[in-house]
Design a protein that fits this description.
There is one protein chain. It is built from two helices and 13 strands, in the order H-E-E-E-E-E-E-E-E-E-E-E-E-H-E. With about 180 residues, it is an alpha+beta fold. The chain has an eight-stranded antiparallel β-barrel. Strands 1-2 form a two-stranded antiparallel sheet. Helices cover about 15% and strands about 45% of the residues. It has two domains: about 60 residues, Ribbon (Laminin), CATH 2.10.25; about 120 residues, Beta Barrel (Lipocalin), CATH 2.40.128.
């Protein structure tokens, strides 16, 4: 009886080791083995980490593209009357940059901005005697479709008089409302 116990014990131990080996190897498989990230993206734990300017499950989409096109602007500044006018968003020099034409229905110079995800940033810049800056968020809308709306909070400051025309940037202080853009 003793002689039969030893082979059974050894067989059981080998079977247990085999099961643990298979289970361990399937848990530690390379989750990035079949993932291909575009545009310099890097796979980490089965998902792509995209470089600035790209998004999507495989970094296949240029982020700024959703901002391109002609937008209809509806706004009322803290010191100006309600206005409706068109602007156009075009590509800038870098993959994260855009240019806005006819900004505030005032500027003849192209306004520079950058995008990250669904956010557009207008850094401090001065043109035509005015200082401007702002931030906005693009969103999907049932009326205008995917990426059909943008809410932009910004200020235009006259450098000669220091008068501030606010479009929701400091709404708590002056009660102004953000600029609404629709495609």
């Amino acid at each position: 009886m003793k002689s039969h116990f030893k082979p059974i014990l050894i067989t059981t131990i080998i079977a247990i080791i085999a099961v643990f080996s298979i289970a361990n190897s399937s848990c530690n498989r390379d989750k990035c083995k079949t993932i291909v990230c575009a545009n310099g993206g890097v796979c980490n734990l089965g998902g792509c980490i995209c470089p600035a300017g790209y998004e999507g499950s495989n970094c296949e989409t240029v982020t700024r593209n959703k901002f391109f096109g002609t937008w209809q602007v509806f706004e009322k500044g803290s010191i100006t009357n309600a206005a409706q006018y068109g602007v156009t968003v075009l590509p800038g020099s870098e993959i994260t940059d855009v240019i806005i034409t006819n900004f505030n229905n005032y500027f003849r110079s192209n306004i520079k901005a950058s995008v990250s995800g669904d956010t557009i940033f207008i850094p401090n810049q001065q043109y035509e005697g005015k200082l401007l800056f702002g931030i906005g968020t693009i969103y999907s809308g049932t009326t205008y479709g995917q990426y059909g709306g943008l809410t932009l909070e910004y200020e235009v400051i006259d450098t000669a008089t220091q008068r501030v025309d606010d479009y929701g940037y400091n709404s708590i202080i002056d009660g102004s409302s953000p600029s609404q853009w629709n495609k």
